[in-house]
Specification:
By secondary structure, the protein is an alpha/beta fold. It folds into 2 domains: about 1-95, Arc Repressor Mutant, subunit A, CATH 1.10.10; about 130-290, Rossmann fold (3-Layer(aba) Sandwich), CATH 3.40.50.10490. Helix content is about 60%, strand content about 10%. Helix 9 links the parallel strand 1 and strand 2.
């Protein structure tokens, strides 16, 4: 973990969320430490640094570097952060782990597990989301001459909802899911425009490449991803991170990311509407009147 994270603060979300966010970018030794902490946070909170090093098969120095890479002063701060999060979980519910299902799980159990997991993911997303970055992103969308959205697969379905709502609110924008079309549109951007890319992993080339090109052309670039050290985050000026759960055999990470992504995109939409409420109210009211003419009467 060569890159130093910004200083950790308990008010910026839990330490486990931060560890999950950087896990894919860690070295092998640091990845092993992260795995042990995420699997047994209660045990690690009670371990000395020597005990944790033995459990991970690594050195005391490596443990310390891991902690500093997270923005902590050292191992004592990691234990304190874990203890704080564990104490909070006693009041708010158990520590969130990946949702797993068996082929014979009853539907009631599946529903309960999904509800708890998705609610926790949105709570963690809200806790760690950079509100100042969210404000800057909303203001940039308001100022934009044109807004490009880049997303594919599951993220595209979520992003389409925001694109359509902004379109109805009078904001010139388009969603590109084909990389050729995305690159062509990114190439036409300049300092008056905004490009928004949505990718759970932050490693999808079809999303990273057009955002990088839009930035080269001078557009303000915004990334929405679960991983703050991903290639997508590297090419964005404004990074908005989600805190989706881990992948499981019946539920890929991108599926778990849907509700956290929707939360961030909803915040952007409301931020735009708040800043343009006078004109937006008129447009949305008149659009509703027109659309209502196409509704069939109730039976």
């Amino acid at each position: 973990m060569a890159e130093q994270y910004e200083r950790y603060s308990p008010t910026a979300g839990g330490i486990l969320t931060r560890i999950r966010g950087v896990e894919p970018t860690l070295s092998a030794a640091h990845h092993r430490i992260a795995e042990v902490i995420l699997a047994e946070p209660e045990v690690v909170a009670a371990c000395t640094i020597t005990e944790l090093a033995e459990r991970c098969g690594t050195s005391l120095t490596t443990i310390t570097r891991f902690c500093r890479g997270l923005g902590l002063g050292g191992y004592p701060e990691l234990r304190l952060a874990l203890a704080t999060e564990l104490g909070r979980s006693k009041a708010n519910g158990p520590i969130r782990r990946a949702v797993t299902f068996a082929p014979d799980d009853p539907t009631s159990q599946v529903l309960r597990s999904l509800t708890m997991s998705d609610t926790a993911a949105m709570d963690e997303t809200a806790a760690q989301l950079d509100v100042s970055a969210l404000d800057r992103a909303a203001s940039a969308l308001v100022r934009a001459r044109f807004i490009d959205f880049f997303a594919v697969s599951g993220s595209a379905g979520i992003t389409l909802d925001l694109q359509l709502r902004l379109h109805a609110a009078g904001r010139p924008c388009a969603l590109w899911t084909d990389v050729h079309n995305a690159l062509a549109s990114a190439n036409a951007r300049d300092h008056r425009d905004v490009a928004v890319a949505v990718s759970h992993s932050g490693t999808t080339a079809e999303v990273v490449e057009p955002l990088a090109l839009a930035r080269e052309r001078g557009a303000t670039t915004i990334a929405i991803t679960n991983y703050p050290r991903s290639p997508l985050a590297d090419v964005a000026e404004i990074v908005l991170t989600t805190a989706a759960g881990e992948s499981s055999p019946f539920r890929a990470g991108a599926m778990a990311a849907r509700h956290p992504q929707m939360l961030v995109l909803d915040c952007l939409y409301v931020g735009v509407v708040q800043r343009t409420h006078e004109t937006t109210d008129l447009l949305l009211t008149s659009a509703t009147e027109v659309i209502n003419q196409h509704r069939l009467p109730q039976r």
